[in-house]
Amino acid sequence: MDLERFLAPFSPPITNLVDSLRYWTEHTPDDAAFYFLDGEDEEIRLSYQALDRRARAIGAHLTKLGMRGERVLLLYPPSLDFVEGFMGCLYAGATAIPAYPPRRNRYMARIDAISADAEAKAALTVADVADRVIGLLDDAPSLQKTTWLATDQVSDDDADDWDPPKLDDESLAVLQYTSGSTGAPKGVMLSHGNMIHNCTFIVHSFEPDRSGVGLSWLPTYHDMGLVGGVLMPLFIGRPSVMMSPMSFLQKPARWLRGISKYNVTISGGPNFAYDLCVDKITDEELEGVDLSTWKTAFNGAEPIRPSTLEAFTKRFAAVGFRPETCYQCYGMAETTLIVTGSYQSERPIIRSFDGKALDEHRVVSAASDEEGVRKLVGCGHVFPEEDVLIVDPESLKTLPEHQVGEIWVRSGSVGQGYWNKPEATEETFRASTSAGDSGYLRTGDLGFMDDGELFVTGRLKDLIIVRGVNRYPQDVELTVEHTDPRLQAGSAAAFAVDLNGRECLVVMAEVERTRHKDWSGVIRQIRANVTSEHELPPDVLVLVRFGSLPKTSSGKIQRHACRTAFLEESLPVIARWTAWSGGDNESNKVVVESAAARTTTYPAEVAPTRLTGEVNPTVADVVMHHVAEIAKERAKDITLDSNIVEMGMDSLERLQIAHSIEETFGGRFPEETLSEIETCREVALATQKYIGTEPRVHDLPSSARRPTVRRDVQPGDYQFAQMAEYKRLKQTERMLTMTGIPNPYFSRHQGITNDTTVIDDHELISWSSYNYLGMSGDPVVAKAAKDAVDRFGTSVSASRLVSGEKTIHRELERALADFIGVEDSIVFVGGHSTNETTIGHLLGPGDLIVHDAVAHNSIIQGAILSGARRRPFEHNDWQRLDEILKEIRMEYRRVLVVIEGVYSMDGDCPDLPKFIDLKKRHQTFLMVDEAHSIGTMGPSGRGIGEHYEIDPRNVDLWMGTLSKSFGSCGGYIAGGQEVVEYLKYTAPGFVYSVGLSPPNCAASLAALRLLQDEPERVASVQANSRLFLQLAKERGLNTGTSNNTPVVPIIIGNSLKALRLSRQLFERSINVQPILYPAVEEQAARLRFFITSLHREDQIRQTIDEVATQLEQINRS
Question: Is the pTM for the entire model greater than 0.85?
Answer without folding.
Answer: no
